[in-house]
Amino acid sequence: MWEQNITQQEKKSTYFLRGGVLLFVIGYVLDYCTQNPIPHAKEFTLLLNVLCTFSLTIGSLQQVSSEKELIKIRQLKYSFLEKINLIHHNNTSLQEALNTLEKEKKALSEKYQELNESIDYAQSIQQSMLPDTHMFNSITADRFVLFRPKDKVSGDFYWFGKVRNFQVIIVADCTGHGVAGAMLSFMAYNLLYDFLAVSKITDPIELLHKMDERIQILLRGKDVSIDMGVCFINTFTRKLYFSGAKRPLLYTKNGELCTVKGDRCSVGGLYSTRKKKKFTAHEIQYQADTRFYMYSDGYTDQFNGSSGKKFGSRQLRRLIDRHHHESMLKQRSIYENALDKWQGGAMQIDDIILVGFTLG
Question: Where is the PPM-type phosphatase domain (predicted)?
Fold first, then answer.
């Protein structure tokens, strides 16, 4: 449009120039006539000369002005084209970057899928490693296991088995959760198998000491540990022997809920120059229909979805105290629903295991 306007101005300048030339010719003719006696010929000739000069001047100015504006417009046009080329170049670079990101995204997605498949496989291995809860039937038919890993694999695990004349029940909580916790649980589970199934250890204190020594050696004294609750049960004498490394045991007696605290040291952890760790053995003579409970700290440490408070050991004990007379199967549902209600929309922060069983 701007160039069209300039063309029109050029046309006007041309018209002025042509008019000026015409007036100049007419003036020349009239000037010639002034040599002859024509009335007012000089005045008319002067007027034509003035008009001619004016026309030529205006035409020249118009042409100069039009050329300057045209140059300016062309400069703006070139500048605009340069910016368009720059934008096009930037768009090309951006598209190349997007293509690179898309390739990286695809590569990450493939790696994530491979990692997920590996974790799924590890989960299947861990599940096959854990004893079938039906093995509990050799100890008691009235029992439950509430096992809820935070991730697909868990640092918490349980162990059931028979060693000589004892039925053994173990609940363990390894440092961490997820893959790191699961790796430690694999190692701990194999150690338990060596000490119980192979070496036939029947003393809970000796078992905890053996586990402590071996884990410190294998992990070279790193700050990695396991909290464990160990029960050896003699069903003939109706005695249960318990030792706890930072894990308690709850049981009922005469309709009341009792607590056996674990010792304040874990299995494994940093090398210590102090004396040998002290673990305590507790002997419980149980009667008919005695209820026992073991758990990791994942249940009691779970945060509330609204207040952000922990569930806490005291609240768990009160919950068990109110419902321990129910069947173990029903209790499992009660404790699981209570945990779900407490957690609400909050994220699960740790692996959770709660085991209950009836003896006598």
Answer: 138-359
**305 has a pLDDT exceeding 50:** yes
What is the Cα–Cα distance from 119 to 133, expressed in whole angstroms? 23
Residue 284 host element (H or E): strand 282-285
The span from the CA of 174 to the CA of 183, in Å, is 9
Determine what percent of the chain is predicted with pLDDT higher than 90: 53
**Under the phi-then-psi rule, with left for phi > 0, alpha for psi from -120 to 50, and beta for the rest, what region is 280?**
beta
H helical segments located in the chain: 2-34, 41-129, 178-192, 204-218, 297-300, 313-323, 328-343
Q: Is 165 helix (H, G, I), strand (E, B) or coil?
A: coil
On the 0-12 / 13-18 / 19+ scale of CB atoms within 10 A, 296 is buried
| Separation between Cα atoms, residue 154 and residue 174, nearest integer Å | 9
Judge contact between 279 and 205, C-beta under 8 A: yes
Cα distances (Å, whole numbers) of residue 171 to 31, 92, 186, 243: 130, 61, 14, 11
